[in-house]
Write a structure and sequence with these properties.
- The chain is of the alpha+beta class.
- The protein has a single domain, classed as 2-Layer Sandwich (Secreted effector protein pipB2 fold), CATH 3.30.2450.
- About 40% of the residues lie in helices and about 30% in strands.
- Helix 2 packs antiparallel against helix 3 and helix 3 packs antiparallel against helix 4.
Length: about 170
């Protein structure tokens, strides 16, 4: 009985470390450029991406993957030069660690350990996925799919991916 109580206490203490709020804003800031801000109530980080990558599409797929139970996923926001890499890892059941890493070289294929940590936070996958879903839906509402493509140039708005993410978030809420 003591072991069960101790284990429950450990689960509770690690769950309380996970932030319950996460805010992500994503905005197009000119032709082929975007700005993304991530805030967890204590820390914040603003990063940018160029049209060289499908940044918003990757973010939506990353959120879908995290909520679907993937153990880890990473993707980049390409810069000119450089890369901001999102690293999402399941640390416990129903808990992920989100890190934003900065690399000086674009397409350098450096290991995560070589990146500069700009943000590290822990949350539930649903918290992350819902924040991404709101951010992407806001971009779609502001620009529409055609307007998005006109500004982002190389990659269309991730309409189908956002639809799938929205369905999964709604099913889990």
């Amino acid at each position: 009985r003591e072991d069960v109580t101790r284990q429950a206490g450990r689960r509770l203490s690690s769950q309380t470390l996970a932030v319950m709020q996460l805010s992500i804003t994503y905005e197009l800031v000119g032709s082929g450029w975007s700005k993304c801000t991530i805030e967890d109530g204590e820390k914040s980080c603003s990063i940018s991406a160029s049209y060289l990558s499908d940044a918003l599409g990757n973010l939506v797929v990353g959120a879908f993957s995290a909520l679907s139970g993937f153990a880890s996923i990473s993707f980049g926001f390409d810069e000119e030069p450089g890369e901001y890499r999102w690293v999402i890892e399941q640390t416990e059941p129903n808990q992920i660690q989100l890190q934003i890493l900065e690399f000086e070289d674009l397409w350098g294929c450096k290991p995560n350990a070589d990146g500069k940590v700009l943000l590290s936070t822990t949350c539930r996958p649903l918290v992350f996925a819902a924040a991404v879903q709101r951010a992407a839906a806001s971009v779609l509402a502001e620009h529409g799919a055609e307007g998005y493509l006109g500004k982002w140039i190389e990659h269309p708005f991730p309409t189908r991916q956002l639809s799938l993410l929205s369905e999964l978030v709604a099913a889990r809420e």
